[in-house]
Amino acid sequence: MTEPNALEKTNRINLLFDFYGALLTEKQRTFLQFYFHDDYSLGEIAAESGISRQAVYEHIKRAEAALQEYEEKLGLLRKHEERLKRAEELEPVLADLGGECAEAIRSQIRRMISLD
Q1: Sign (positive or negative) of CA dihedral 53, 56, 62, 65
Q2: Residue 13: which pLDDT band, with cuts at 50, 70 and 90?
Q3: In the Cβ-directed half-sphere of 94, how many Cα atoms lie within 13 Å?
Q4: Cβ–Cβ under 8 Å, residues 83 and 111
Q5: What is the pLDDT of residues 81-91, one digit of tens each?
Q6: Which of 17, 26, 34, 113 is 20 to 30 A from 96 in CA distance terms?
Q7: Helices (DSSP H) in the chain: which residue ranges?
Q8: Cα(58)–Cα(23) distance, rounded to whole angstroms?
């Protein structure tokens, strides 16, 4: 995998983890955190956990698949990204509007996005 693709994948997994991490098993959460958040290698995770590198790889792949499945069914990340896109599209309108009203709307948009 090329570096940009690896970075995109890592970012996506981290976002999915933020939304769905609580739905994973303890072991899946731990391995994903080590691998994607803390940048441990498969060998380092295996040594830390007392299992084979292959077993770690399989746990991580199953956890990734579970996160993707949750996203396909629930779409929380897709909806979050859509909200961010629409908020961005409102910015030029708010810039034209100006004043206290525009700032109040910006504040409400920020609050709406932070609900995720």
Answers
A1: negative
A2: very high
A3: 16
A4: no
A5: 999 999 899 88
A6: 113
A7: 3-20, 26-32, 42-49, 53-74, 76-97, 99-114
A8: 18
Judged against a pLDDT cut of 60, whether residue 1 lies above it is answered with no
- Mean pLDDT value of segment 84-109: 89
For residue 6, name the pLDDT band (cuts at 50, 70, 90): confident
CB neighbours of residue 69 within 10 Å: 12
Q: What are φ and ψ of residue 115, in 5° steps?
A: -65, -25
Q: Which residues contact 95 (CB under 8 A, 6 or more apart)?
A: 102
pTM of the predicted model, to two decimals? 0.80
Structure-block tokens of residue 107: 């504040």
DSSP 86: H
**Dihedral sign computed on CA atoms, order 21, 27, 30, 33:** negative
- Asked if residues 67 and 76 have their Cβ atoms less than 8 Å apart, the reply is no
Which of these, 62, 59, 66, lies nearest to 31 by C-alpha position? 59
Rounded CA-CA distance 14/35 in Å is 10
